[in-house]
Specification:
single chain, 172 residues, alpha+beta, 2 domains, two-stranded antiparallel ribbon, two-stranded antiparallel sheet, 7 helices, binds zinc ion, Antitoxin Xre/MbcA/ParS-like toxin-binding domain-containing protein, Xre/MbcA/ParS-like_toxin-bd
Length: 172
């Protein structure tokens, strides 16, 4: 049995390493889950942790479907994530975007809408390029489009107007 996982503490250490796949707003929930598994003497290893369709998805091994003390802990974490923003941990709901469903607070829903508009209209659908633009491009007001959109519906409208101006090549 050498080299095998023998202790819940070993599982905890391995499970901590899986938190990088979890969106930032859900990491506290994930941390509480894996500490809960450890405290319940669960020997489960997380093989996947991340967001899919606005839900926290966690796969455990050796049990594909968690049983015993693991099941309620997993259910509670998923239920809590369903009301928590993936990006910031604030109160949230599942939001339908054009190409994805995400669990977002009102601020981050507006940022996601702006980012999606930028991706589709300025960056050939490249979400990562749009994300970089949202994070870095300082508009005349001295704010990035992301921070502008996060403020209010009016801020989102301003970013959409900015995107339209860039699209038409009239921004300078
Ligand atoms: Zn948020």
């Amino acid at each position: 049995m050498t080299g095998q996982i023998k202790e819940p503490a070993d599982c905890l250490v391995k499970n901590i390493a899986m938190r990088d796949g979890v969106p930032p707003g859900w990491r506290e929930i994930y941390d509480r889950l894996i500490v809960g598994l450890f405290q319940s003497d669960c020997m489960e290893l997380v093989t996947f942790a991340g967001a899919q369709g606005g839900e926290l998805q966690i796969a455990l091994a050796p049990c594909e479907v968690a049983t015993g003390p693991c099941a309620p802990l997993l259910a509670a974490a998923r239920q809590e994530a369903a009301a928590t923003c993936e990006d910031c941990g604030a109160e949230a709901t599942r939001c339908e975007l054009a190409d994805a469903v995400r669990c977002l607070c009102a601020r981050h829903y507006r940022v996601a809408q702006a980012e999606q508009a930028a991706a589709q209209r300025l960056f050939d659908g490249e979400m990562s390029a749009a994300g970089d633009w949202m994070a870095a491009f300082a508009v005349a007001l001295g704010e990035t489009p992301a921070s502008r959109a996060a403020l209010s519906s009016q801020g989102l409208e301003e970013v959409l107007t900015l995107i339209a101006r860039i699209e038409r090549g009239v921004y300078c």
